[in-house]
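Let's practice the habit of predicting before peeking. Look at the sequence and jot down your guess about where helices and strands might fall. Then scroll down.
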Amino acid sequence: MNLDAQLRSYDLWKQSMTDSIKVYQHWLDAMSLTDTETELMLIKNLRLIEKDTITIAFAAEFSRGKTELINALFFSSAGIRLLPSSPGRTTMCPTELFYDRKAAPYLRLLDIETRANDTSIEDYKRDPKHWVHIELDDDSPEKMQDSFLQLLKTKTVSAAHAKELGLATEEVEGEVTIPAWRHALVSFPHPILEKGLTVLDTPGLNALGSEPELTLSMLPNAQAMIFVLAADTGVTQSDMAMWKQYVQGYSNKHPHSLAVVLNKIDTLSDELMSDDEWTQSIHKQTLETAGLLNLEEQVIFPLSAKQGLIGNIKKNQQMISASGIQGLEIFLSDRILSSQKEILQHKVISDVVDSMKLANSVLTSRLQHVVNHTNELNGFYSKSEEATAELLLETRKEQTAYKQNLAHLKTSRHIFYTQIADLLEVVNPKRVSYLIDEGREQMSKSWTSVGIRQGMKSSFEGLNSLLNETLSTTQASIKLLDAIYKRFKDEHNLDVEQAARFDIKVYQQRLDKLLRDGLEFSSSSEAALTEQNTLTKRFVNTVGAQAISIFEQAQADINRWKSMALANLIREVSEQKKLMESKLDSLRSVSAGKNELDDKIANNKILETEIKERQAQLLHMMDQINISAESLEVEKSVRQEAI
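Done guessing? Here is the structure:
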C-alpha cells in the first residue's frame, strides 16, 4: 500500500473509531449508565483521535536535495516545485507544513530577532500576533510558490549582533549573513496534510546546534526521520557531524523509524557508463554509506528526488520507477504509518473496550436482578401474609446493610481524596518551575561549559528527587485504594474490579530521556560554541518547558485517576440501591392484589427484553472494535515478517 493509500486507510479508521465512540456515548445515555468518569474518558479518546498527527522530519546539510525530496514525496500534485528547491535556493529556517482546520491557508514567519528573547517557539505558536502572517491562495500553486520564496530570505548583520542571537562564534568578525526568519509555519488543505501528516523541514547543522527546541523536542518527537545525503559527495565531514550529534541518537531510540536517503543518484551516471555499471556504482555507494553509519542496507534508499518529482508531475511511470522514490514511499507507508496506527489503536481500544466490558457486566447484573424480581413476584401468589412479612423484614435488613455500605463508601472516598490531594501537591508544576529557576540562576553565574552542564545536571537531580517523592506518595495512594476495595469485599461481599491505576513509571522514563538528551546537547560542539547566556536561556526554556509539561500531564492523569478510582465501587453500590428499592416496591405491591402483580410481572418481561436487546447492541459494538484490533495484529505480524 503506497503512502497516500495508507494515509487514507488510517484516516478512515480514525473516522470509524470516532463514530463508534459517539454511538457508544448515546448507548450509555439510553441505558442510564453514563457517569462523569466514563464521559471524560471517552472525550479524552475522541480528542486523542482528532489531534493525532504523524510528523516526518527531514534532516540534512545544505544542498543535499532535501526540499526537492519533500516536493517529490508529498507535493508533486501541485504540478510545480511548490517549495523552493532549485540549485542555490535553500530554505533557511525550520519549516513545518500541516493543515490547520481552524484557519484559512497561511504562511507564518517568526522573526529571527526573537532569538534574543526567553520565549520558546512553542510559546510563540500560541500567540499568532508575533508572526508575520501571509495568506496563501491554495487555488493557485504559482502564487503559493511565490509566497514560499520568503523561506529563502537572509539579512546581513554585524558579527556582534549575530553573537547575541547565538548565530556566530566568538572568532567571527565583520558582517554576517543570517536567516531572516527563525521558524516558519505553513498550513494549507493539501490532501495528504488534511489526513494528519506534518512535515518538518530542518536546515543544516548550524541551525540544529543553535536551537535546542529542535533537537530536544521537535526531532525526537517525530514518528519518522529522513536523513538526506548526496550521492555525488558521499558522507562528508559535516554530514558525519550531523549524524553523530543529532541523527544517530534518534536512530538508537527509534531503530525502525529512520531512513537514510542517498539522493542525486542521477549524477553518478554518464554517457560512457552502462546501466549495469551505474547500478553497481549505486550499490557500492549504498554499502559504503551503510558501513559508515553502522546501519542495515535496507534502510538506505538510493534515489533521485529530481527524477521522482518530474516523473510524478508528468505521470511518467518509467521515470518514477527509475528514480527509486517508491522504495522510500513503501518504507514510510508500511513501517511508520502502520506503527503509528498501532500505537493509537492500543491507546483508544484498550480504554473503550474496558469500559464496554464493565457496562456489559452491569447489564448482566441488572438482567439477573430483573429475572430474580420476576421470580419473586410469581412466588408471592402462593405466599401467606406471614411469609410476606418475613420477606419484608429481611429486605429491611438488606436496606440497613446498604446504608452502612454507603456510609463506609463516603468515609473511604474522603480519606482517598485527601491522599490524592497530597499527591497532587507533590506534582504541582509550580515546584518544577522553582527548580528550573534555581538551575537557571546557577547556570547564568557560571562562565564555563562544565559549570553550565553542572547547573543543568543539578536541575535534573532536583526533578528526579521530586519524581521519587511522587513515586512514594503514589504507592501510598495505591495501597489505600487496595485496602478500600478489600474491605468492601471482605465486610460487604462486594467483589468489584478496580479501574486502571496511575502509572508513575511513564513519567520517570520521559524525565530520564529528557535528562539524557539535555546533557547530550549541552556536551555538543555547537552548544559549546554558542554564546553562554544564549545557551542558558534556550536550554532552560526548552528543557524547563518540557519538564513542566511532563508534570502537568502527570497532574492531569492523577486527577483522572482520582475520578475513576472508586467509580466501579460507587456504581455497584448504586445498583445495590436500585435492587433494594425494587424489592421493597414488590413487597408493597402484594397487598394491592393480583392485578398489580400481573402488571409488574409484565413490565419486568418488557424490561428483560429491552436489556437483552441493548446488551446485544453493546456486544456488536465490542465485536466491531475487536475486529479492528485483530486486523491490527495481522498488519503487525506482516510488517515484522517484512522487517
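How did you do? Residues 325-380 form the longest helix (56 residues).
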